[in-house]
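Recall that a protein's primary structure is simply its ordered list of amino acids. Everything else, from secondary elements to tertiary packing, is in principle encoded there. The following example makes that idea concrete.
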Amino acid sequence: MAHIREEHSGASVEADELRGQAAEDARRAEAEQVITAYSLPPFAADAARAAAPFVDLDALCRNLAEAAVPRPLFGRGGLDPTAPAKPDHQAIAERLIRRAW
């Protein structure tokens, strides 16, 4: 009879461990869905996974997605990134000549 109680107790402990693992897997799957929905770059997705148990994941992913959007660099090489794709070479040459004199 004691042998049956030990087996029952051991099975109960194992069942609790499996329930806990299933709950953890469900939380991770839910976090992955939120992270995937925001199409985060790899570095931001890794940060979100690490912070998932501690913060509001939706808000974090929204902020990371906004921060990861590339922004134009103004003043890079003296060119305006909002300028037309084909620069006016004559106007550029005239500006360079004016600066030289």
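The chain has four helices and no strands. The two ends are 105 Å apart (CA to CA).
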